[in-house]
């Protein structure tokens, strides 16, 4: 089983679909099916079971996927350390970033880093913060950028903090908030993980129940802060969003939320990584680059 096979098994496990896995691998579905059949023949076991909902891994298939992930992680580490022995800033930097950061902040930063170190390549995964933590625990990425407060017991650096705002088309009275239509951003579900997190919604709920004895009047549930903002622009209600999604050009009325203690509600963005990976020149330079306030 070679590196391509390991990658194929990992993607197949993530997608649980031959069609989607083939698309990510840039091969045809028959070609993917043929390679799986060859592996099944080599090991003498069934790797997948086809169902109406997709491709389900057999117990033997799950074991092979776990082996494939471990093999790929070890191979990546081997390549990284061989390059690091020459203290050269080159190779592939593997990043996991929160979706918002990947859209609004990361592209120009990578462009500038690439200008300084042209031999560097990037492998970027955009995902939910708990998923990024999982990738870092499994050593599938070098550096993660997450949003919110999560348990991480190795190295971390605060990249930015931003206020949380209540936004509305026109000025509103906070005392009347429970009676006004609320446009709520419903966070996507993700599998349970061992990390303990303070989510955006939990932070806002704590603020709400300091002030009100009744719940908000939710009239809309949307899946993106940008959608919240567009609904607010049409006068359909108010929303509570992180500051990165609001600008003066939006023409909205904004109120920064503050706890009764006087502490402002903020949404933190953290860079997390393992101290041990700073032995790799490519990781060390990137971490220092991200810490530089003048980058």
UniProtKB/TrEMBL annotation:
Cell membrane among keywords: no
Name of this protein: LysR family transcriptional regulator
InterPro entries: LysR_HTH_N (IPR000847), LysR_subst-bd (IPR005119), WH-like_DNA-bd_sf (IPR036388), WH_DNA-bd_sf (IPR036390)
Domain HTH lysR-type: 1-58
Record has Transcription regulation as a keyword: yes
Similarity comment: Belongs to the LysR transcriptional regulatory family.
Organism, as annotated: Paenibacillus filicis
Gene3D superfamilies assigned: 3.40.190.290, Winged helix-like DNA-binding domain superfamily/Winged helix DNA-binding domain
Keywords: DNA-binding, Transcription, Transcription regulation
Species classification: Bacteria, Bacillati, Bacillota, Bacilli, Bacillales
PANTHER family membership: HTH LYSR-TYPE DOMAIN-CONTAINING PROTEIN, HTH-TYPE TRANSCRIPTIONAL REGULATOR
